[in-house]
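FIELD: query
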Amino acid sequence: MITPNEFKSGVLIKFKDGVYQVLSCTRSRTAQRRARVVAKLRNIKSGVQIEESFESEAKFDEVEMERRKAQFHYHDHIGYHFMDNTSYEQFALSEEQLGDSALYLSDGLEIDVSYMDDLPVSVQPPMFIVLEVADTGPTGRGDTATGGGKPAKLTTGLVVTVPFFVKLGDRIKIDTRTNEYVERA
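FIELD: result
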């Protein structure tokens, strides 16, 4: 059993006659009220995302899952194609199954894949990834290395705020938990 206070990104729970993956959660407490957890959940089978509010004392069954390493190969009209690093089997996951994790996938990236009943259901990208800047605004005079930022679109389609000194073609390190710029690579 697991309580909403123990939720973290990637956890699978049984909820409303289905299996849901926790995408994100926030905790809040108001005066004279019990603590509440607001979680963004994704149905594993249908890919539908919902946002639910839970009492912090509620209990849920945690779904048994196995994690294995896999390597991302390519994306096409069928889905996103991976190869299991131990068995060398190839499999594809749909965009609905991946959710926002699809924005971190670049060729050859090694990721953790969650399996339920020997079927891949979701991926967990590494904590930090390095991607190339595909589009960003020009750097103006007076821009400094500290303070402020500008939006930059990366090769995977992810848009992050970067310092003014980052330019087109730079490779930057991104924190996948927060979608924030960390440093130039």
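FIELD: remark
The chain has three domains: 4-55, 66-124, 128-184.
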